[in-house]
Every structure is written in C-alpha cells, then in structure tokens.
UniProtKB/TrEMBL annotation:
Residues 1-36 form the signal peptide. It is found in: Periplasm. InterPro entries: Bact_solute-bd_prot1 (IPR050490), SBP (IPR006059). It comes from Caballeronia grimmiae. Keywords: Signal, Transport. It comes from the Bacteria. This is ABC transporter substrate-binding protein. One of its GO terms (cellular component) is periplasmic space. Belongs to the bacterial solute-binding protein 1 family. CDD domains: PBP2_TMBP_like (cd13585). The keyword Repeat does not apply. It holds the Pfam family SBP_bac_1.
Amino acid sequence: MKKRITQGIQSRPLKHIAAVALLAASAAFTASGAQAWTLKEAAQPYSGTTIKAIFLDRPGYKAAQTLIPQFEKETGIKVRWEVIPYENTREKEVLNFVGGGDQDIVLVDVVWIGEFASNKWLVPIKKFTDDPKLADPSLNLQGFFPILLDSFGTWDKVTYGLPFDNYSGLMFYNKCMLKDAGFDAPPKTWDELLNTYAPKLTKGDKFAFALQSRRGETQSADSFMRVLWPNGGSLLDAKFKSNLMSPQSQAGLEYRQKLMKYMPPGIVDFDHAEAVNALAQGQVAMITEWSAFYPTLTDPSKSKIGNCLAITTEPRGAAGLKPALGGFSLAVNAKSNAKKQAASWLFIQWITSEAMAKPYLEAGGVPARTAVYKDAAVQDKYPFVKPMVESWQGGVPDYRPRFPEWPAVSEVIGEWGSKMMLGQVTVKEGAQTIGQKTEDILKKAGYYDGKKPLLK
C-alpha cells in the first residue's frame, strides 16, 4: 500500500508537486502569521500613549469603563474619557474638529456620520485593516449585524467606524400592572395600546405609557420619528420632499396626540432617564425605550420593578414592525497624529471584537456581534436579546435620515414637534412648518438642483 502511494506521487508532474508544496507553505505561513499577531505586540510602539474619548452616561459606556483597565494592562496605552450629556455631544465634537482639540476616539451617532465623513473628520478603517501590524486577523467585519455596520459605521460605501453601544427600540413593561388590569400579555399593536390597554392602566397617579419627548434629539428621534414609521409614514419621500402631510404620517402624529392623555403630566420634558425611571418606580406600565437601558431597569438600587419587568418588541403598526434604530460607532479622528490614530484603532478594534462581545455584554453593554446572541445561555440570561435581534433583522435602516443636514432638521423638529405635543399648534400646522423648513434646509444644501445625490 505504501509503495502504491509513493508511486502515485512520483508519477505526478514535478510542476504540480511544486505548486502543492508552495500552497502548503503559503497556508502554513498565513496560519503562523495569524497566530503571531497579538494585541500586546501590536501595541508596543504605542505604549505610553494617551488617547481621549467622549462617553455618555449610559450603561454601555460604563461597561466599557470597567473593561478598559484590561486593555491598558495589555497594551500600555492609556484611555481617558469625558462623560457628557448626549444632547451636547455632537456640538462638542464639531468644535473639537474645527478648533483642533485633543479628542482621538470619535463617538459617531447614526445621524452624524454623514456630516463627519463628508467633512473628512474621520479616518476610513481601510488605513488600519490594510496594515498587518495593526489589523487583528480575527476582526471579521462580517460578524457585525449588517444593519448596524452599514447604518452606524458606513457612509457612501466607505467604512469609518465599528458599531458600539447599539440599540433597538423595545417595549419594556410592568407585567404585574398589566395583570392587575386584566391583561396577561402586552399589546401587540399600537392601536391595542391606545384603545384597549391605556384606558384601563391610567388611574390616579398611574399612567399607561411614557414616551420620552424632551426638546432636542430626544423629541425628534425618540418621539416624533417613532410614530411615523409604524404607520407607514416618513419625514421625506424618495425625492427628499416632505412626506409629513401624507395620510400615513398624519395618522402617526395624530396618534401621538391621542396617547398623551395616558402619559404623565410634563411628558414633553421627559428625557430617557425620566421615562426609564417612571417605569422603574411604578409610575407607568409601559415604555418604548432603547435596549441599552435593560441594566438600569434590573439594578435594584435604581429600580423597584424587580420580577415584574418584561420585554418584547415595539408594537406593530399599520406598516408592521418598524422599531426605532439607534446607537453609535467608534471612529478615529483624522486630525489626531499618526501615533494616536494607531492607538485609537487598536482600542476600537478590541472593544468591539468578537472576543470581547460577551465580557462587554456581561458588564452591561450591548455588543453588535451576531455570534454572542446565538448562545442559548445568553438568550436565557438576557431577556431583551430575542426581541432586540428580531428588531435588528427587520428594523428601519434610515429610521432617521443620515445626511449631513440632519442636525439642522432635528432642531426644527425639536422645536415644532414640542409645540405640536403641547397644543400650541395643530398637527397639520406643525407638520407643514417642519416640512417647509426641512425643504428649505435641503434646498440650500443643494439636494434639489443636482449638486448632491438624494440617497446615500
């Protein structure tokens, strides 16, 4: 038998044998190269470098803070961060870019990436992934949920950042309050919530629902846009003209007005913290909030809801399941020096890696990696996982427009959306004003004369 095998090999053309040997050597070299790459060795040239970031006062960032000492010990790179309110983040980062500040890691909201990328404030990740000294062979960009990598990290087909602290809108509810009102399950539709559940759950100082609606990005994204999509509406149509006067958009905005009588007084000044706290303290029975707030609602020092907490997808509307999509990516500041850029990339690559996904989740963060959520133990331990994954698979990529002009449009919606809720203008008057002002902004930017493409 051994003789036959030997004869078979000898009978093959020498050229073929050489090709096989070369292929084997190449595979061995690739394997050894992949094994040789380590974070510690990659970081050696940058040991002692300090990089700076902006963080928010949210669970995902606190989770990162608990893990950073591990990165610092491994690399010798120091990570420093400043915690500021979300509403101030974009302005602070823009001032940093324009004024030549010292921020190295850029926090990029889904609606900021167009502005940041168009102004060349971010470094395309290709600069780092093409560098074998900096690129972790196990990076696996395909391991991110596509909707997250595309929406939060990519602009005009160029990837600038890796998804970090990403959320889907979910319904968190107090199953004990629902049971006491005669319900053994949450509402499946927005119509059920308003017409069947809300009247029975609103009594005295207890309310059915809280929709975070504070003027600013919370009003524009978390309140105003949230009621458009489930009803089949949208801010703009395919030609970037206002779609707010469509029957579907009007239905969504009218729905929000009807729901207000089942929400706490002062709801127009509720930010995320107030909405989450209202559920946590038993003031309201239901909220639609970001999946990232699960750790807050399960923290006994902050929440009284205890075992009464339950989670499901956002309700369905006439257009089906169209949940809110939110979150960020981490990117490298193009204005930082080369050493800080490399150190920043190593941190971003590490904190968003598949290897760190479970530690980040266990520390209170929400990773964007698909693999970690396939773990049955993870699904059992974290009840928000299944509805969140379902929502990410069927979410709205352009839940908020990602063009660079969104911040200006958001200010308009923040002002007039609040007036609408307060009854200072009618829904039609508010929608007409927002639509006109939005079109003025887009006209000035060049979308209607061919200077800018309509879709990204």
